[in-house]
Amino acid sequence: MATLKHSPLTYNVSQLLREEPGSRREYAFTESTLHLHEGEELRDIAGAARFTRTELGVFVDATASGNVSTTCMRCLQPALVAVEVTFVEQYRATVDVTTGASIAADRGEADEDDDAFIIDERHFLDIGSALREYAILEMPMRPLCKPDCLGLCAGCGVDLNQESCRCSETPVDDRFAALQALLDRKPQQ
Ligand SMILES: [Zn+2]
Ligand SMILES: [Zn+2]
User: Where residue 2 falls among pLDDT bands split at 50, 70, 90?
Assistant: First the structure.
């Protein structure tokens, strides 16, 4: 199986895993960009995370803010949407830090969501994986470049933020004019 590429927000937790449950680490982080998915990325990231050693791995409690670069749903121009993300997630250890033996996922708790976040075999914990999921959840259904974006005119298609509607300037369509002329003539034939 291919190893997933880690985000820049990855921490080596091998020391923490050697400590007693309840042991903690705190980190402040900043990062310029985190890819979310096609056409969207989280930028200007700043946040803080607390890692707590648990029986199964590491419990992560984090808050972060950033701007998601996306497309305005009204005018189709690039848009930046500010998001605030808070999450608590358990990252499950997959390898025993002292013996190197792999740890089976099934610990008798049939909770498949627990498998969403893991600490890899080299004891790397990537908070980018959770940050990405939670940032996507925070995105509005219809992102806008600005709250009062005027969008595109449904008639003439101009970006109403940039120029005024040209609908009234458009002369009557020539094809309709020709049809009208035919109809006007018909009774005489
Ligand atoms: Zn817009
Ligand atoms: Zn128009």
Answer: very low
Both 50 and 121 in one domain: the answer is yes
pLDDT digits (tens, 9 = 90+) for 6-55: 899 999 999 999 999 999 999 999 999 999 988 899 999 999 999 999 99
> Which band of pLDDT confidence, cut at 50, 70 and 90, is reported for residue 168?
confident
Which ligand is nearest to the Cα of residue 72, counting in written order? 1
DSSP letters, 108-161, are S---GGGGGSEE-TT-EEEHHHHHHHHHHHHS-SS--SSTT---B-TTT--BTT
Structural domain contains residue 96: yes
Distance 46 CA to ligand 1 centre (A): 26
Residues 129, 166: one domain? no
Ligand 1 center from residue 149 Cα (angstroms): 5
Q: How many domains does the chain divide into?
A: 2
